[in-house]
Here is the input.
Amino acid sequence: MIAGPVEQIFLGDDRIDHLPGYARGFAYGDGVFETMRVHRGTLPWWGVHFTRLANGLARLRIPVPDVGAMERALAELFADGADGAAKLIVSRGGIGRGYAPDVDALPLWRVSRHEIPPLPRPDGLVLRWCDTRLALQPALAGLKHCNRLEHVVARGEWSDPGIDEGLLRSIDGFVVCGTSANLFVLHGDRWATPRVDRCGIAGTCRAWLLSETGAAETRIDPAELETADAILLCNAVRGILPVARLEARAWAPHPAVADLRRRLARAHPAFDQEMA
Amino acid sequence: MIAGPVEQIFLGDDRIDHLPGYARGFAYGDGVFETMRVHRGTLPWWGVHFTRLANGLARLRIPVPDVGAMERALAELFADGADGAAKLIVSRGGIGRGYAPDVDALPLWRVSRHEIPPLPRPDGLVLRWCDTRLALQPALAGLKHCNRLEHVVARGEWSDPGIDEGLLRSIDGFVVCGTSANLFVLHGDRWATPRVDRCGIAGTCRAWLLSETGAAETRIDPAELETADAILLCNAVRGILPVARLEARAWAPHPAVADLRRRLARAHPAFDQEMA
Here is the structure.
């Protein structure tokens, strides 16, 4: 049971009751978003989420909402001190029809509160390859922007509850990510993760893992997953997710993954709670 | 002055007061749209717009709203018999967070009414090249979907009112379209237009011109615009737009463009009115 409002919507600093019909987020997906793990009403990684959000907004030339207003709105949603996930969408304001952006328009933004359903297989995900390929678009790559039809179409490829996630390749055949997670690949004692310079999202848990493991940011061929000693998925809501199987390839639990999960648990109290 | 409501919003067949905050159109741009010329309260090309809309929704597996409900909503917006433009957005319904599409969810859709501002240079547009390139994504190419950040970013490249439109190239360097128009190129008596199988939108006025001119759908190199005898832009709201200049290249008015404008005027009463 969630007590209190499950969303708040703002235009600039002003709370408003509804999304306006002319919202450019609705017309064009003209915005960026963050999905964040909430631990006892707090956002342990708010700083890195805010930094990424601000960078994304700067690249799209959308003004950044007042940081205090965002923090207050998120805190109010979780004033009961619960665990969960928070989503923050910041979209471009302006009332006009047509693509021309008003780079001075007050941003239209929304915070919402969500439950985290239990993972069906916490000890290791079952993955498939998606047929949908990610287009190469350096101008938008890395951003957690709201143009997500590729991910929607990819996630729509399967409804089998026995499959937990799908891996996406780029148009030119390299592995990029899961539909809602980044990917890390282990060979020996060397971690690697796909570059996000042409497609894909620069995830916050990915950033933590990069600094923690010194992983190489490279192009990864699908064949390199077959030969990997372990692979894992990660995102800011779920943390590190071990992978048990990708199509016919199976992996036993790997101590390096377990070690990273323990280190993440020390860095983020929500994941510590899960390890307990 | 617009009499009456300027928008109506529906969930399935039911009129609703506001966009819900959880709208997937707002979160992911998960929908398609049509922008249509209205002539004396009617939509002369409704049939082709509806067909394209239904095809786009089928490709994204979004249920098609009741055609009668859409027609009634559009007619109500223009019950005063005015001229203008109508916009119809049909987005995927469903309340869940996460990319997984509910392919059975009732669609969330909106119609809105807009004025058509006069063209600054009706005798010939002034164009620029955009730096923003269009990614190659065959799975979404041709669709008038709501993931339009590329067009927003491209249209944001200039604010000089002396520039009317920007031409977009694909990532691999071929000419595709204007930010809100399709492109046709004349060499001798042969028209050509960029294919929209990898990026770009299959416009309704483009379809009319294809059938009227027998234009070739090809890959077009930017250098072919330099050598062209004429180029034109087109869309469903503006009809056929002659081009006077692209960067340093200038064109005199061409009789073949004028002829096509006359033929379009006979096919669509709004453009007949403009020619009068």
Remarks:
- Helices of chain A lie at 24-28, 46-60, 67-77, 149-155, 204-213, 222-226, 255-267, 269-275.
- The two ends of chain A are 24 Å apart (CA to CA).
- The CA atoms of residues 11 and 108 of chain A lie 5 Å apart.
